[in-house]
Structures are given as structure tokens and as C-alpha cells.
Write a structure and sequence with these properties.
- With 303 residues, this protein is mainly α.
- It has a two-stranded parallel ribbon with strand order 1-2.
- About 17% of the residues have low confidence.
Length: 303
């Protein structure tokens, strides 16, 4: 017959002479080892979730330490992150509008990628030229009223020239506006409009210099200076336009229009030089202020 096994005991059996404290401790240790073995046998069934502990107590203390960063330290940290991750793809560069009219007001304006204004002094020249335009247009109005009063004009010729005088400030302001933004940021449409309005203004001033009804020496002096400044500003725009043609963001249609506007401006410059060097013929009548005063005097009329 099978003999039943006795249950585990802590220490010695009843009636055993070994009843000391060491026997009791041995039984306790044996029971604990049995429990540990039972738990290890079931460890492949249930896995306790594990969490990653911090590497050291010093790092965990740094996380909870309050740190106050200055702006210089923040910039240094940002630069270090950019240097550590040089291969991060930041996505495509923002598209630069082709004209200042496409940019919302009070927004950040930036030049096209790879563009540098090679004629930065032209911005100050625009500012000075604006006041010069006010001065000579004012004198041209005064002289036009004076010639209309003292001299005999063909029919409708005086009114036509007065109307052309009122167009000059508008053309100049449009030219200054697009020339400033086009030369500063390399905007294609602005450079095209700058060259086109520069050509129109040049033709208008050349008319008053060579082909108006009566040309006075004062007209010749400030009109020649105005045309010289206009040609220099237009050449600066053409130089910046040549740089814009090499940019990758410029389309084929924009390249074509920019070439047409620059070639037309250079062609009008050559035409102006030809008119300046050639004899004027009988179309313009050059008169002096003294001759006009003598013609208005009573003694000359009575004689």
C-alpha cells in the first residue's frame, strides 16, 4: 500500500528530540525556497511589465532642477541642435512672389535665394532724385505758363505739353516704387516694370528736350541732368535684372519679358544718344529769356 507523505513541517517532527531554533529557521528557509521555485515555474506565462529606470540619481535630479535660460543660451542650444542634425530635411524653401504687389502688407519680405543687390547705392539715388523731380517739374510748369503767355503757340500745342507735364510725376513715382523693390529683392515683374516705365519717362523728357515748341536754355540744363540720372538708374536695374535671369525660380516667360524690357530700355538709350549728337533741325525753336522779354516790351511792339 502507498504510504501517504507527511506535510512539510517547519522545524522537527512532533516527538523529535530536535526542537531548537536552528531547526525552525531551516524549515522556514525551505518553505521560502519552495515558493520561489513555484513562482519561477510560472514566469514564462505572465511577464511583469518593465519600466526603464533613470540611469542615475544625478540625472533625475537635473530634470527637476529649475533652469532659467537666457536668450543667448537659447540661441547657442539651437545652433548646437542644428549642427548635430545636418541632414534633417526642412522641406522645400518658401516660394518668393514675383512682384511686391503679390506680397501682403506688413509681411516679412526676403530676397530670392541666391540674389544680392549689386548696386545698393541706387536706393539713395532714388531718394535724392525724387526731390529733384519735384524741382524741375515745378520749373517746367512755370516756364510753360510763361511761354504760353509771351509766345504764340500752335493750336492745342500748349495744352498738349501741359498735359504731358502732369504725366511726368506719375511716371517717375511708379518707376521709383518698382525700381526700389525690384533692385532690393530681385523681383522679376518689378524689374520689368521699372525698365518699361523708365523707357516711357525717357521718351517724355526727350520730347521736352528736343521737340517741344520752344526750348529755353534753362529747360536744356535740368532736362539733360534728369535724363542722365534716369539712364544711370535704368542701367543699375538692368545689371540686377541680369542677375535675376540666372536664378532657378525664374520661369521662361519671365525671362522673355525681362529681356524685352531691358533691350527696349537700352535701345531708347542709344536713340537718346543719337538725338543728342545729331543736329536738331528746324523742329525745336530755341529761345532765350532775354529775347522773350524784348518781344514783350512796348518799344519793340511800337517799332
Amino acid at each position: 500500500a502507498a504510504v501517504p507523505m507527511a506535510p512539510p513541517t517547519f522545524g522537527a517532527l512532533p516527538g523529535s528530540p530536535i526542537t531548537t531554533a536552528s531547526g525552525l529557521n531551516h524549515g522556514i528557509n525551505h518553505s521560502i525556497n519552495g515558493i520561489n521555485g513555484h513562482s519561477h515555474s510560472h514566469s514564462h506565462i505572465i511577464a511583469a511589465p518593465t519600466t526603464e529606470m533613470p540611469p542615475s540619481s544625478s540625472s533625475s535630479s537635473q530634470l527637476h532642477r529649475p533652469v532659467i535660460w537666457s536668450s543667448a543660451e537659447q540661441q547657442q542650444q539651437q545652433q548646437q541642435r542644428e549642427e548635430e542634425q545636418p541632414g534633417v530635411d526642412e522641406g522645400p524653401a518658401p516660394e518668393v512672389p514675383p512682384s511686391i504687389l503679390c506680397i501682403p502688407p506688413l509681411s516679412l519680405k526676403q530676397p530670392q535665394n541666391g540674389y544680392i543687390n549689386v548696386t545698393p547705392w541706387v536706393q539713395r539715388l532714388f531718394f535724392v532724385h525724387t526731390y529733384f523731380v519735384y524741382i524741375y517739374v515745378f520749373y517746367m510748369f512755370v516756364l510753360a505758363f510763361y511761354k504760353g503767355y509771351a509766345l504764340e503757340y500752335p493750336r492745342y500745342r500748349l495744352w498738349l505739353e501741359m498735359l504731358m507735364l502732369t504725366v511726368i510725376p506719375a511716371l517717375q513715382h511708379i518707376r521709383f516704387y518698382f525700381g526700389h523693390w525690384g533692385c532690393e529683392y530681385g523681383l522679376v515683374w518689378d524689374l520689368c516694370l521699372f525698365c518699361i516705365f523708365g523707357s516711357l519717362t525717357m521718351l517724355l523728357l526727350a520730347y521736352f528736350l528736343f521737340f517741344q515748341a520752344y526750348v529755353m536754355p534753362l529747360d536744356t540744363n535740368f532736362l539733360q541732368a534728369a535724363l542722365a540720372i534716369l539712364v544711370f538708374e535704368g542701367l543699375c536695374g538692368c545689371v540686377n535684372g541680369l542677375q535675376t535671369l540666372k536664378l532657378a525660380t525664374t520661369t521662361g516667360f519671365q525671362v522673355f519679358l525681362l529681356w524685352v524690357s531691358m533691350v527696349s530700355f537700352l535701345g531708347f538709350c542709344c536713340l537718346l544718344t543719337k538725338w543728342q549728337l545729331s543736329p536738331h533741325g528746324e523742329v525745336p525753336v530755341t529761345v532765350s529769356l532775354l529775347s522773350v522779354v524784348q518781344a514783350m516790351s512796348p518799344s519793340h511792339r511800337s517799332g
